[in-house]
Amino acid sequence: MTYKFSNNMQSVTGLATREIFKLLSKPEIISFAGGLPANECLPTEAVARISNELLTSAEGKAILQYGTTEGIATLRTELVKYATSEGLKATDSELMVLSGGQQGIDLFIKAFCNKGDVVLVENPTFLAFLQVANSYGVRCIGVKSDDKGLDITDLEAKIKEHKPKALYVVPTFSNPTGKTYTAECRKAICEVTAKYGIMVLEDDPYSRLRWTGDRVPPLKAFDNTGNVVYVTSFSKLISPGLRVGFCIGEQEVIRKMTIGKQCADLHTSNLSQAIVREFLRGGLLEPHIKIALPIYQKRAKTMLDCLAEYMPKTFEYTKPEGGLFVWGEFKDKTNTVQKFEQAIANNVAYIQGQVFYADSGGLNTLRLNFSNADPEKIKQGVKALGKVFGK
Amino acid sequence: MTYKFSNNMQSVTGLATREIFKLLSKPEIISFAGGLPANECLPTEAVARISNELLTSAEGKAILQYGTTEGIATLRTELVKYATSEGLKATDSELMVLSGGQQGIDLFIKAFCNKGDVVLVENPTFLAFLQVANSYGVRCIGVKSDDKGLDITDLEAKIKEHKPKALYVVPTFSNPTGKTYTAECRKAICEVTAKYGIMVLEDDPYSRLRWTGDRVPPLKAFDNTGNVVYVTSFSKLISPGLRVGFCIGEQEVIRKMTIGKQCADLHTSNLSQAIVREFLRGGLLEPHIKIALPIYQKRAKTMLDCLAEYMPKTFEYTKPEGGLFVWGEFKDKTNTVQKFEQAIANNVAYIQGQVFYADSGGLNTLRLNFSNADPEKIKQGVKALGKVFGK
User: Fold this and answer.
1) Ordered per-residue pLDDT tens for chain B, 391 residues
2) Nearest-CA neighbor of A128 among A105, A148, A161?
3) Parallel, antiparallel, or unpaired: how do β-strands B95-98 and B199-203 relate?
């Protein structure tokens, strides 16, 4: 049979990162390609104990039974408290549990966008957002940015030109660049999007992974009109394998996204939800993050030091204060897509920056992840990169 | 802010069953409204032990780390064996793990249907299918059926008239009717859909819950052209709270649905997946089903006996050989939508059959679930129904 796939899905291809994820089953390859938390920071013992306690408790049957789409009520209560501590106001009905942060992107686009609509994104942006948008026939247009965040003049110009439905941003330790928007930039984004009635999706999976510098309030904290939806996840803080995130928005928006989730997966695994709840309720999350931060900081420092030592002078890169990524750019237009095979042959992997662009830009860029390799491997890997890109 | 939701989602409302699920927090209400497995059949002890073993094993870190979209490789190996034992041939690349069977419906429609397309369904059909179709702007047209299954003449006529993209069926212990298609009907469905190049989604969450009568091969077993996608779930066999299902189709179809899943939730909870794998690998599933079946059989028998005793003669109903549901129809056109409030006032809940219809039919029908109330409650509940519907 010749299959005739839907118009929206015909052009959607697998994520470059996911494809590389499969490639990396070769153990000799040092991968800077993923966005995986450090294995050392995955709390197997705590989760084993918590799972056992939960399932042998009076709640055990409820955990294995069907649950509500919005998420387990007692988890939602903890999430409201957690959100408050993060500078976000939310009542119970302004918050829903997600099967990972990725689902928040899917449900947001489903709720707001029609085929042919435009969504503005930072250029470069999180590539899964580009993929999800594509799966709905939504067109992404890039907005310029600098070290302070989005270029507000360009944002307003693009709003006027393209009449977008929404803006998508990762304002703290951005994927892929590792950059953080200033508070002023966040405030300005809220003002200009509110002025034109544009929805904003703030994707914030990394902000808690800050090991230096001052915290910046979430963009959502500057939202006075309810046009910002905030999505975050416990993938980088507890475990990505459990698939738990949550989002915050006005009640009407959360209600619509909840109906979207009913259609998608009915509800998130109750066991995963209850495990995250115990991390919050039992005060395990904060100490766990405190243990993880120095590990990430050391890896980031090692990578930055090695980049200085082994990479050519034409390679410029970000110096993140948190998160998982370093973003690099060759000022001499070295093509990172063409170099990729050679890198794999040298047993090192990165992500070609081009995949993060809404247009055809970024051929001279790459993203490096430092969280999932130990310092020794990082040294070895960057040394190999240095060979590939010829210091 | 006034929200402008997407055209597709504007008209999608919450599922009737989900709304009733929330209503049922009143403990005095006896609910025949859900589709919940018996709490007695939820294996809390086994899952507690397995979780603990998994997370303290060498695999613990991998379980908490990101996984592949297709599902854990070792689970997929077990699923291939399980599928074989169910009369289904599938290689590893013809199978993918789902976050519950519901996700299979979503990914199938996403892969194949454009806004405005028609999908044929049995009338009545699983209401979540109608909701998901609606969320994609896909129109459902009902096909007639009788005790042997779909009316093949009507199916072919509707194919010619509406040029549908796909047909959706629940051929074994159908939700909502509890009926099972004959092998002849299944073969005929495969032939006629293959003839016109129509995709088929076979939804099969209930077939293992058979306590009497002969097993009928899955519809997919009669598929010679690769136009049938088979979806099933462990929600009714192990636990709905874990959210694990899987689907089978030709490699090209599974690949497209995998990309759809990447967009939706990246992957299913690894912990949930590994738990299901241990049930299969450790030979726990079959004994567990053997313990569950007499419980369901007894509840079904109690309900059927009580319906005979307490309901008026104008009420006709199915006598299922398995599954979770009895389907009833008032021959005197009693309106079950109008009677619902009175039922709740009498502390008993059912689902108005109308919600399962692709058209405005079924006002004189209702669905009763027998799996989630013990025999004493069933007796009490049907007695209350008898009062509401006045024997």
Assistant:
1) 899 999 999 988 877 766 676 666 678 899 999 899 999 999 999 999 999 999 999 999 999 999 999 999 999 999 999 999 999 999 999 999 999 999 999 999 999 999 999 999 999 999 999 999 999 999 999 999 999 999 999 999 999 999 999 999 999 999 999 999 999 999 999 999 999 999 999 999 999 999 999 999 999 999 999 999 999 999 999 999 999 999 999 999 999 999 999 999 999 999 999 999 999 999 999 999 999 999 999 999 999 999 999 999 999 999 999 999 999 999 998 999 999 999 999 999 999 999 999 998 999 999 999 999 999 999 999 999 999 998 7
2) A105
3) unpaired
A260's enclosing H/E stretch is helix A251-265
Burial of residue A100, with CB atoms counted within 10 A of its CB: 0-12 exposed, 13-18 middle, 19 or more buried: buried
| Rounded-to-integer distance, Cα A140 and Cα A305, Å | 35
Amino acid at B347: N
Region A246-256: mean pLDDT is 98
Determine contact: B60 vs chain A, CB below 8 A: yes
Torsion angle of C-alpha atoms B235, B86, B62, B98, degrees rounded to 10 = -50
Please say whether the beta carbons of A270 and A340 come within 8 A.
no
Least Cα distance to B227 among B203, B254, B249 occurs for B249
In sequence order, what DSSP letters do the residues of B126-150 get, joined into one string?
Answer: -HHHHHHHHHTTPEEEEE-EETTEE
Chain A residue numbers with beta carbons less than 8 Å from the beta carbon of B21 are 66, 68
DSSP assignment string, A265-285: HSS--HHHHHHHHHHHHTT-H
- Return the number of CB contacts < 8 Å for A and B: 268
Pairing mode, strands A245-248 and A95-98: antiparallel
Burial class (CB in 10 A: 0-12, 13-18, 19+), B375: middle
Most B-contacting residue of A15, A17, A20, A55 (CB-CB within 10 A), to test interface = A55
Alpha helices in chain B (DSSP H): 7-10, 16-23, 44-56, 60-64, 73-85, 101-112, 127-135, 152-162, 183-196, 251-265, 270-281, 285-310, 336-345, 375-388
Which member of A9, A45, A115 has the closest CB to residue B256? A9
Please give the Cα distance from A96 to B131 (Å, whole number): 20
Pick from B53, B16, B56: which is nearest to B34 by CA? B16
ipTM: 0.97
Chain B closest-CA separation from residue A332 CA (Å): 35
Q: Tell me A239's DSSP state.
A: -
Q: Is B295 exposed, middle or buried (0-12, 13-18, 19+ CB in 10 A)?
A: middle
Q: Which of residues 176-235 of B touch A (CB under 8 A)?
A: 194, 197, 199, 225-227, 235
Residues paired with residue A120 on neighbouring β-strands, in sequence order: A141, A167
**Cβ–Cβ gap A14/B259 under 8 Å:** yes
The per-residue pLDDT for range A95-136, each reduced to its tens digit, is 999 999 999 999 999 999 999 999 999 999 999 999 999 999
The tens digit of pLDDT for each residue in B171-216 reads: 999 999 999 999 999 999 999 999 999 999 999 999 999 999 999 9
> B267: which chain A residues are within 8 Å (Cβ-Cβ)?
243
Query: By the CB < 8 Å criterion, does A267 face chain B?
Result: yes
List, in order, residues 6 or more apart from B24 with CB less than 8 Å away. B31, B33, B34, B349
- What is the distance in angstroms between the Cα of A64 and the nearest Cα belonging to chain B? 4
Cα gap A248→B191, rounded to integer Å: 49
Hey, is the C-beta of B241 within 8 angstroms of any chain A C-beta? yes
Separation in Å, CA A215 to CA A130, A174, A210, B321, B322? 28, 14, 8, 61, 58
Residue A196 C-alpha, separation from nearest chain B C-alpha, in angstroms = 11
Q: Do A240 and B66 touch (CB under 8 A)?
A: yes
> Would an 8 Å CB–CB cutoff place B34 in contact with chain A?
yes
